[in-house]
């Protein structure tokens, strides 16, 4: 099937209120443009250099989401292009993003990345860390950043019961943060979780953003 047909197939299955982030990493601009021409407007990149190279070649109404691990020395590179950074995994990174956004008079939305998977290689706040940081007011007083919710990746496994339990933990943590610490922030409403293999499970457990690449663009072109 074509990229347009793949998009149509996926979006037809998404319930109302769930948005698709088309993960375009490692795919060339012409393929991204195919998806754009089919109506897709939110794209996800996980490498700073790739986002900075692609974005200037694409239409300006695209909403670019940075979804990969963000090194501090790459924040400045993506700042002019990213409308949302989904992978805020430390207070230091959050503060730096706020500082760099202020430097260029830019406003950026962010998601707090939670570490719920069994793999230690995945990054993010532990549940205890994020709740403690919220208690201590670490997410307050950010001039150029709006915290819009949480993001997570489940363990890479065929055991969908385990995946479901991890997504449920993310959802419960989101509710706890929202109700206790972000009650005055109407923008705090996003849960980004679910990829090509497990997005239907994520949607069942409250995902509002799903990040799908392979099922749209096919195998990655390295």
Total beta strand runs: 8
Structural category is alpha/beta
Q: Distance between termini?
A: 21 Å
Count of helical segments? 9
Cα shape:
globular
What count of structural domains?
1
Mean pLDDT: 96
Q: Nearest-angstrom radius of gyration?
A: 17 Å
The level of helicity is 25-40%
Defining key terms:
222 residues; alpha/beta; TIM Barrel; 9 helices
Task: Describe, in plain words, how this protein is organized in 3D.
The structure is a single chain. The chain has 222 residues and is α/β, with parallel strands linked by helices. The chain has a single domain, classed as Alanine racemase (TIM Barrel). The protein is built from nine helices and eight strands. Helix 6 packs parallel to helix 7. The longest helix is centred in the C-terminal third of the chain and has 22 residues. The chain is globular.
Sequence-ordered SSE layout with sheet pairings:
Blueprint: H1 3-13, E1 19-23, H2 29-37, E2 42-45, H3 48-54, E3 63-66, H4 75-78, E4 82-88, H5 91-103, E5 108-115, H6 127-135, E6 145-153, H7 160-181, E7 190-192, H8 199-204, E8 209-212, H9 214-217
Parallel strand pairs: 1-2, 1-8, 2-3, 3-4, 4-5, 5-6, 6-7
Summarize the structure.
The protein is of the alpha/beta class and 222 residues long. The chain has nine helices and eight strands.
């Amino acid at each position: 099937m074509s990229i347009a047909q793949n998009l149509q197939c996926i979006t037809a299955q998404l319930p109302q209120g769930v948005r698709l982030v088309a993960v375009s990493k490692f795919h060339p601009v012409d393929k991204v443009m195919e998806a754009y021409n089919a109506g897709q407007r939110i794209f996800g990149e996980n490498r700073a250099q790739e986002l900075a190279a692609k974005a200037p070649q694409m239409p300006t109404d695209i909403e670019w989401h940075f979804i990969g691990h963000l090194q501090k020395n790459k924040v400045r590179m993506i700042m002019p292009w990213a409308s949302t950074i989904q992978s805020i995994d430390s207070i230091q990174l959050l503060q730096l993003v706020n500082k760099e956004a202020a430097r260029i008079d830019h406003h950026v939305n962010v998601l707090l990345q939670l570490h719920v998977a069994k793999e230690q290689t995945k990054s993010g706040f532990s549940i205890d860390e994020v709740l403690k940081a919220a208690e201590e007011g670490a997410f307050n007083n950010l001039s150029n950043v709006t915290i819009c919710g949480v993001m997570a990746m489940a363990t890479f496994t065929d055991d969908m019961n385990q995946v479901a339990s991890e997504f449920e933990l993310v959802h419960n943590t989101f509710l706890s943060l929202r109700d206790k610490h972000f009650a005055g922030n109407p923008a705090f409403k996003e849960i980004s979780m679910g990829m090509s293999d497990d997005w239907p499970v994520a949607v069942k457990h409250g995902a509002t953003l799903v990040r799908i690449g392979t099922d749209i663009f096919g195998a990655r072109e390295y």
